[in-house]
Amino acid sequence: MSTLLSARGLARHYAVRTGLFGRRASLRAVDGVSFDVPPARTLALVGESGCGKTTTAKLVLGLIPPTAGTVTFEGEALPRPNTVAWREARQRMQMIYQDPLGALDRRLSVLRQVAEPLEIHQVGTKAERRERALALLDAVGLQPHLAGRYPHELSGGQRQRVVLARALILEPALIVADEPVSALDVSIQAQVLNLFEDLQARFGVAFLFISHDLKVVRQVAHDVAVMYLGRIVEQGAPEALFREPVHPYTRALVSAIPVVRRRAGRERIVLEGDPPNPIAVPSGCAFHPRCPVAVAACRSETPALKTLPDGRLVACHLAHGDAAMRKAA
Ligand code: SF4
Predict the structure, then answer these.
(1) How do 313-314 and 306-307 pair as beta strands?
(2) In this structure, is residue 211 part of a structural domain?
(3) Among the three residues 166, 193, 209, which one is the final residue of a domain in this structure?
(4) Range of 48's domain?
(5) Which residue's C-alpha comes closest to atom 1 of ligand 1?
(6) pTM of the prediction?
(7) Tell me, what's the pLDDT at 260?
(8) Is it the case that residue 110 has pLDDT exceeding 90?
(9) Alpha carbon nearest to ligand 1 atom 3, residue
(10) How many domains are contained in the chain?
(11) What's the rounded Cα separation, in Å, for the pair 23 and 33?
């Protein structure tokens, strides 16, 4: 399968000052993340708040520069930000956010919002832009009579549909969707997730789908990457990952989904404590202070992200058959 988007060793560190005396420290928001997104597929990035998902999205779009690593899009290195080449690439890479009201201009009608990117890029005549915008409103399931409404006159689900229509109008190859359904009611979430699938089948667009909620991505993702403190700790096909999660952190996330827990007859795993401060990442495996099966070596040796026989990637000493560690566990 060809690759549309490729990230290799992507990192973003921030210099910060901490404590009473303002000691210099490094905040590792993203710390060596690699993944591929094929055309017309969906990769979900999942993890708790602060794990680096949104920073990864901004790095992929070139909105912030990486401390290390590379992004390749449609076979080319991502151009430097604010250049003509970058703006051209950005037409093919759109982003949608959690809050559709914040993403829309309250002074513009729905039709104007959706047609505006064509206006900005001087694509087509006014009549052609209007026709294309109406076709996209239809594609996202909005009735023509809503075209003249303003964002505050729509429901949350309708606004997110407008945002999707606007993102699609320049025919992007990739949409980065940052928590696109988390502000919606649960009943509306399912409809919008169905829409993501429909639009992918119809327009061949790929999604980088970011969510703190593992159960949300189950419906839409072809590949799921679980992040913890700036790193991917497990990545694989959703069927395998939900059926038999390997990394102890993924196991805890999956066990928190009531339906999956019931079907698999599993107990819920409640993790102790909050995620550590990214300025003071624990030594060895960063998950060890919360890991229910940690062994002594986990405190000093950082597990590499390695492939299991079923093809999934896992960063855990126990997953890779270290006999001594299994015994100690
Ligand atoms: Fe737990 Fe050790 Fe595996 Fe980290 S490497 S997830 S601490 S068992």
Answers:
(1) antiparallel
(2) yes
(3) 166
(4) 5-92+172-328
(5) 294
(6) 0.92
(7) 67
(8) yes
(9) 316
(10) 2
(11) 27
